[in-house]
């Protein structure tokens, strides 16, 4: 049984059932400040645990959620759950984090996304500065529609990051015109940045450009110590990847949150340890 071999109405029924039966859950991956190893944020990543098929990757079901229109309720569930979790961490006494949530194209195009986000923040009593929305370049193509939408979101006080940067279209135009706070360097450039001169140049150039534009920059797919050292040397602000942690449960996240700073210190990776 595979989603892609089913017809649209069966897929829709399955996704609806998943919502009703609580088959979705979130995992969280830490975002670290690369100077110190301090965890400053989390990205919420959606998972679907189907009783028969098992775990289904978002890459395999988000397109069908879009196709069937169910991305709206699913996306809202993600936003609400991620904000709720962030609030719970704050109430547990964890240092406040920014929670990043991936938006899909049709969520942005639904027109009332800003109102939705505002309502969820109110409902969860979460300050807007603790929510970040990740969008991709391909979603920003329809400038006349998307630009006012992003401005409305910014007015609420949430931040916006441009995910998978470098893999979409006309990225430089978007950097200039869109109210973006952070660039996420796509994993495909980070992967070989220590062994391929072209990737190295691309990563360095994105970091330098981000800083000159007064944007933050984060690298995704940080998998090795070599990656980390390269990114630190080139003054990348933040990093996210398997070197630090895979996406984990909320409990696992909270338990490990403070460990990275110690590891950075003891392994001489922290700015502090070089003093
Ligand atoms: P993304 O937003 O670019 O998320 C990063 C993906 O890279 C995640 O895959 C994460 O598990 C993976 N990753 C993180 N660090 C590493 C690493 O060091 N090496 C490698 N090889 N991979 C790493 P995941 O969780 O399978 O999600 C895939 C994509 O699905 C996401 O890419 C995002 O576009 C989409 N997605 C996930 N959750 C949601 C959601 O709630 N809503 C929407 N609309 N899309 C989502
Ligand atoms: Mg993302
Ligand atoms: Mg990404
Ligand atoms: Mg990606």
TrEMBL record:
Domain EAL: 8-261
Protein name per the record: PAS domain S-box-containing protein/diguanylate cyclase (GGDEF) domain-containing protein
Organism the protein comes from: Terribacillus aidingensis
